[in-house]
Amino acid sequence: MDEAYSALDPLIRVDMQSVLLDLQKEIRKTVVFITHDLDEALRLGDRIAILRDGEVIQQGTSQDIVLRPADDYVANFVKEVNRGRVVHVEAVMTPATTPVSGKPTVVAGTTVEDMLRLLSRDAADEGIVVAPTGDPLGIVTIRQLASAMVNAH
Description:
By secondary structure, the protein is of the alpha+beta class.
């Protein structure tokens, strides 16, 4: 799909993106989606490739691209991204070395933004990250979450 949603207004565009994500989960087929909208690529893509002059400069997950840009070109490309909506808590957590409980808990894959919202609501300084099975993976603090939202470049 080449620039499939570029002419749509923002509300319809988000709705259509959601429909595509739901459809992709249902049919479980690869979709090649071409866009110049980085936020759209980060929302829709399991794997993203950034090209310059027809050459792949970097490919990887949204987390790879945003957290570990391959060069200054990619770093400049992603500098305005809302990292809170892209970075997942497990990318910044401290692995659990002892059993933990009694803190707000989220499943791995939760965004930094959603975790901050939860901690703010519960007036907590840190939370627990668990696997889909419920096994604890780590602890994440407000400081780690805030650092993840700031562009290091």
